[in-house]
UniProtKB/TrEMBL annotation:
Pfam family, one: Glyco_hydro_28
Keywords per UniProt: Cell wall, Cell wall biogenesis/degradation, Glycosidase, Hydrolase, Secreted, Signal
Localization terms from the record: Secreted, Cell wall
Protein name per Swiss-Prot or TrEMBL: Polygalacturonase
Active site: 278
UniProt xrefs under Gene3D superfamilies: Single-stranded right-handed beta-helix, Pectin lyase-like
Family (UniProt): Belongs to the glycosyl hydrolase 28 family.
Length: 436
């Protein structure tokens, strides 16, 4: 995400807004409590065979069987919670996925769901089959009290698969103009053996997918979309997460396409398309003199179009730790402002003082990076810290041309040991003398 300076007035404004919403919602809640109650009562009378919902069945837990309406108006949160509890407690007959309990979000329905925490561990591998639409409440006023900071949270689950041709609709429009966009669409904490496949996520109020302290995450064929102008709608953010594959996906948004934070290693990003937004980022790392480690990251066979950056590594001054073993392979750039960028002076406020320590950057390889750039800044920018130069930066088959009719720009380089294995366009002559 883009870092915004946090000032006291800003925090105060944010707090005040949140309090305001809480009050608005409280009022709303009190007003509707009676109605809610009446609805439940009616429901009981009309469908005596349903509640109390039993956890029996054939391993398919259709949220409608738990009272979800799916008309895009009613709040279906409780049905999801009950369906999850049953599915999670259910034991599959074998370890094979074909027998895993399935929480089914059926096609043809739109379910409104408030903040929900899907908590493990579960009895067996579990599938959430999203064939229909899952919608967030429509804007701050409809958001449930106390929980505007979270929406769909998945916690401590092993072997969770979320798949299907459906849609997760974050309905972020009303949040984007506010100084705080408090919640992400989907957040995964301490999950292991996680698979996300096929579905689409749109208009998250903030990050679309965020992973913290997860192990073994496989993302495939998903589609993330938010307007180019939507702030902080990062596509996929991972942090302290290892063994990650992100394949065959399309991300069109207003901030980083994929961002990789500290503590991530063994990450493979392959065949993805990034549109608008800020490209694929490692960092920012080392904020407030913190320690950061990122290692063994490969990005390959991908297309980056009309973005602010292509492939970027950004660190704040004053941090420590390292970024190493990074490979960018076969990347097509189309009209990207900064296709290749290493920035060890990351400072969006422009008010950072020079510091002596830095998160070290070494063993970074760029191979077959081709396409066009927009000439507002150099196509290759390698800006490394004064005390800790970047080492072993290898560029091969880099060919970047200005968008038609624009003048070509030189590469920018500061304090880096680079090596070019082929002729590059633009030429990169910025290597420090290795005898220094
Ligand atoms: C992930 O699944 C594998 C194979 O089923 C299992 O051995 C491993 O323990 C799981 N990982 C974690 C961190 O639970
Ligand atoms: C790459 O991903 C796209 C979806 O963005 C898919 O249509 C295509 O088949 C994938 N290519 C390969 C080689 O898997
Ligand atoms: C780097 O990560 C890949 C998976 O993306 C893994 O197969 C490989 O073993 C890792 N390499 C090292 C040196 O750990
Ligand atoms: C920080 O270092 C850079 C590079 O050496 C230099 O251009 C800049 O003037 C310095 N800034 C301050 C505030 O000393």
């Amino acid at each position: 995400m883009t870092y915004f300076p946090i000032s006291i007035p800003f925090v105060a404004y944010c707090l005040c807004l949140c309090v305001c919403y809480t009050q608005a919602r409280l009022h709303h809640h009190l007003h509707h409590n009676h109605l809610d109650h009446e609805n439940k009562h009616m429901h009981l009378l009309l469908s005596p065979s349903y509640p109390p919902y039993k956890c029996n069945g054939d391993g398919i837990f259709d949220v409608r069987e738990f009272g979800a309406i799916g008309d895009g108006i009613e709040d279906d949160t409780n049905a999801f919670k009950e369906a999850w509890d049953c599915a999670c407690q259910s034991q599959s007959q074998s370890q094979s996925q074909t027998n895993s309990p399935i929480l089914l979000v059926p096609h043809g329905y739109s379910f409104i769901i408030q903040f929900t925490m899907f908590t493990g561990p579960c009895q067996s591998p579990i599938i959430i089959q999203v064939d229909g639409t899952l919608m967030a409440p429509d804007g701050p006023k409809s958001w449930s009290k106390n929980n505007i900071h979270r929406w769909l949270v998945f916690y401590r689950i092993d072997h969770l698969t979320i798949k299907g041709k459906g849609l997760i609709d974050g309905r972020g429009q009303q949040w984007w103009n506010l100084p705080c966009q408090p919640h992400k669409a989907m957040r995964f904490l301490m999950c292991t053996n996680l698979t996300l496949q096929e579905f689409k996520i749109k208009d998250s109020p903030h990050f679309n997918l965020r992973f913290d302290r997860c192990i073994s995450v496989h993302i495939e064929s998903i589609f993330i979309v938010a307007p180019a102008s939507s702030p902080n709608t990062d596509g996929i953010h991972i942090e302290n997460t290892k063994d990650v594959q992100i394949y065959n996906s399309i991300i069109s948004n207003g901030d980083d396409c994929v961002s990789i934070g500290t503590g991530c290693y063994d990450v493979e990003v392959k065949n993805i398309t990034c549109l608008h937004g800020h490209g694929i980022s490692i960092g920012s790392l080392g904020i407030h003199n913190s320690h950061a480690l990122v290692s063994n990251i490969t990005v390959s066979d991908s297309t980056i179009k009309h973005t602010k950056n292509g492939v970027r590594i950004k660190t704040w001054q004053g941090g420590y730790g390292a970024v190493n073993q990074v490979t960018y392979n076969n990347i097509l750039m189309e009209n990207v402002r900064n296709p290749i960028i290493i920035d060890q002076f990351y400072c969006p406020t422009k008010q950072c003082s020079n510091q002596t320590s830095a998160v070290e950057i070494y063993d970074v390889k760029y191979n077959n990076i081709k396409g066009t750039y927009n000439v507002r800044s150099p196509p290759v920018h390698i800006g490394c810290s004064n005390q800790t130069p970047c080492r072993n930066i290898i560029l091969s088959k880099v060919e970047l041309f200005p968008v038609k009719g624009q003048p070509a720009l030189d590469a920018f380089c500061w304090n880096a040991f680079t090596e070019t294995e082929t002729i590059t366009v633009p030429p990169i002559h910025c290597s420090l003398d290795k005898t220094l």
